[in-house]
Design goal:
This protein is an alpha/beta fold and about 400 residues long. It has two domains: about 180 residues, Glycogen Phosphorylase B (Rossmann fold, 3-Layer(aba) Sandwich), CATH 3.40.50.2000; about 160 residues, 3-Layer(aba) Sandwich (Rossmann fold). Strands 3-4-2-1-5-6-7-8 form an eight-stranded mixed beta sheet, with helices on both faces. Helix 7 links the parallel strand 9 and strand 10. It is globular and about 65 Å long. It starts with about 30 loop residues before the first strand and ends with a helix. The N terminus is likely disordered.
């Protein structure tokens, strides 16, 4: 059995590291749990952030093992950016497999469990060595990504199983997720925020495309509510056209083939298929000049951990219009770097698309502010904070 109050071994200071000056001390061996690793076909922004933080922990002196689920055609063991990755089992067996790995290859000084929908339940087998890493709660996402009765079961069970983690420290990506955990009984002073990041901004905002271009970037899944964006674009296209403004919508991403087919049919029914382009997934899309010259990013997600794509868009001078949901409320500064709608409807989304699309002055102002703000969200800051916040979370409470 795992001791009730084990001593967390900290790596002593051993000369300069990329994070020298932060006075941090990290555990020797860290086991990082997440159901997907960055090479998983369905990996997203959360995995991008996680692997960067794992690399930062290693550069600061720790040794990190990333444990995740298998996927078709994967290797059981790999190295990503110098981080050892172990793949075993599936979402249904991940807790048992992780526990077995922990016992077989331990001792680990710290277990950092990242929860994306389904937990590993590490507090039950790693005890005081367990720390929670959570980008976002699933909540309403269950109703979009799962069928009844699994959807209602997931929605009701999530706050219940998170109670097992209440006495453990937590690392989160945004103030929204921090507030969610505190409402569930987590101690406020033990919920630490690590800021997100994007690639370094271009030297200056790119010149915008000649045709007003709205952009969606992300996974094509039901919970992203891309159907809201297409309906909103249909309205905006008509009303902007009446002002003599031509526009188009570019959808960048991959995911569910079923959802994409429905979206294509919706664009046809709305009569805008000619102006809606499904681009597919583009790696580092912000480096693609044709995409980076878009005017406005449009998001209608049920919720996000932060909305990494917002920061990526801002880095090339693209402001965002989004729903006022957790995550997007954190990454979009209303009327400063973008616009948050009053409510979560295609009508409200369309209203803001028309308003911004017809105001070159406001669009230019938001674009400039978004670009300048993106400079604050660089990887060096995020990685340094990942080291500092983990060291604080791993420090035993006396």
């Amino acid at each position: 059995m795992t001791p009730a109050t084990p001593r967390v071994e900290l790596r002593p200071d051993s000369g300069p590291t990329p994070f020298s000056g932060t006075n941090t001390r990290l555990p020797y061996r860290i086991l990082l749990l997440n159901w997907r690793d960055p090479q998983h076909p369905k990996a997203g922004g959360a995995e991008t952030l996680t692997i960067n933080w794992a690399q930062a922990w290693q550069e600061a002196g720790a040794t990190v093992t990333f444990f995740s689920n298998k996927f078709a055609g994967c290797e059981r063991e790999a190295s990503i950016g110098g981080v050892r990755v172990i793949r075993s089992g599936n979402p249904a067996t991940q807790g048992l497999n992780a526990r077995a790995f922990y016992r077989r290859e331990g001792p680990f000084d710290l277990v950092v469990e990242e929860i994306n929908t389904l937990p590993f339940f590490s507090p039950f087998w790693a005890g005081q060595r367990s720390i929670l890493l959570m980008h976002q709660m699933a909540r309403e996402v269950w109703f979009y990504e799962s069928r009844w009765p699994l959807s209602i079961a997931g929605y009701l069970i999530e706050p219940l199983y998170l109670r097992a983690y209440r006495r453990r420290p937590a690392l989160v990506l945004s103030q929204s997720t921090r507030a969610d955990l505190i409402k569930l009984g987590f101690q406020a002073d033990r919920v630490h925020i690590i800021p997100g990041a994007a690639e370094e901004a271009s030297e200056s905002p790119l010149k915008r495309a000649e045709i007003l271009t709205f952009l969606y970037v992300g996974r094509i899944t039901a919970s992203k509510r891309i159907d809201h964006i297409i309906r909103a674009f249909s309205f905006a296209h008509e009303h902007l056209g009446q002002q003599g403004i031509d526009c188009r919508l570019r959808i960048v991403g991959s995911g569910s083939g079923v959802v994409e087919r429905k979206l294509r049919l919706l664009a046809e029914r709305e009569g805008v298929s000619q102006w809606v382009e499904f681009v597919g997934w583009v790696n580092q899309w912000w480096r693609d000049e044709a995409l980076a010259r878009a005017h406005v990013l449009v998001l209608a997600s049920v919720r996000e951990g932060w909305g990494l794509v917002v920061t990526e868009a801002n880095s090339v001078g693209i402001p965002a219009i989004g729903y006022p949901v957790p995550g997007l409320r954190d990454s979009i500064q209303h009327l400063v770097t973008g616009i948050l709608t009053r409510d979560e409807t295609p009508q409200e989304l369309a209203r803001e698309m028309v308003r911004l699309g017809s105001s070159t002055e406001q669009l230019a102002r938001l674009s400039s502010a978004a670009y300048e703000d993106s400079k604050r969200h660089d990887w060096s800051t995020s990685r340094a904070e990942a080291v500092r916040q983990l060291s604080l979370a791993a420090t035993p409470v006396i």
